């Protein structure tokens, strides 16, 4: 059972997100392509950003690509999903110590707060992201 304090906190957070996002109108409903140069701009623009670090030759990356696409639609207005090709953006891969792909980086308020390595099943990936909402 949700306490009154929890309901108020949830309502206030929803109001804040609406104010920031304009009801999700300015939030992309699909993954945004980011590069070494554009990553910081994206992670600082939105409260929560999940960056899918991938490469075209990676089988598990291709497995989670449609999951990331679907979550970007479902979570529009709450979370922005981005895709970073690690073959083309080695500086970012090096900066965040990405040794295996797919690696998902989760940024909250511009700061890296978590990472997930490997292809998670859709329900686990969604649960992982929702922990930070």
Can you walk through the features of this model?
With 133 residues, this protein is an alpha/beta fold. The chain has one domain: Glutaredoxin (3-Layer(aba) Sandwich), CATH 3.40.30. The protein contains five helices and five strands; from the N terminus they run αβαβαβαββα. The chain has a five-stranded mixed sheet, with helices on both faces. Strand 2 (48-54), helix 3 and strand 3 form a beta-alpha-beta unit. The chain is globular, with a radius of gyration of 15 Å. The chain starts with a helix and ends with a helix. The model has no long low-confidence stretch (mean pLDDT 91).
Question: Layout of SSEs?
Answer:
Elements: H1 4-21, E1 32-34, H2 39-45, E2 48-54, H3 59-74, E3 80-85, H4 90-95, E4 103-108, E5 111-117, H5 122-130
Parallel strand pairs: 1-3, 2-3
Antiparallel strand pairs: 2-4, 4-5
For the CA atoms, what is the radius of gyration?
Answer: 15 Å
CATH superfamily: Glutaredoxin
Number of domains: 1
Query: What is the C-level CATH assignment?
Result: Alpha Beta
Mean pLDDT: 91
N-to-C SSE string, H for helix and E for strand: HEHEHEHEEH
Helix count from the secondary structure assignment: 5
General shape: globular
């Amino acid at each position: 059972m949700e306490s009154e304090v929890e309901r108020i906190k949830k309502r206030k957070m929803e109001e804040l997100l609406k104010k920031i996002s304009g009801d999700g109108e300015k939030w992309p409903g699909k993954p945004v392509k980011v590069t070494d140069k554009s990553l910081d701009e994206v992670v600082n623009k939105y409260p929560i950003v999940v960056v899918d670090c991938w490469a075209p030759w990676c089988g598990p990356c291709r497995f989670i690509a449609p999951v990331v696409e679907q979550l970007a639609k479902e979570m529009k207005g709450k979370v922005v999903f981005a895709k970073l090709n690690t073959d083309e953006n080695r500086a970012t891969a090096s900066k965040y110590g990405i040794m295996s792909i797919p690696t998902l980086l989760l940024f909250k308020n511009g700061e890296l707060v978590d990472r997930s390595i490997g292809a998670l099943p859709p329900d686990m990936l969604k649960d992982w992201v929702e922990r930070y909402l």
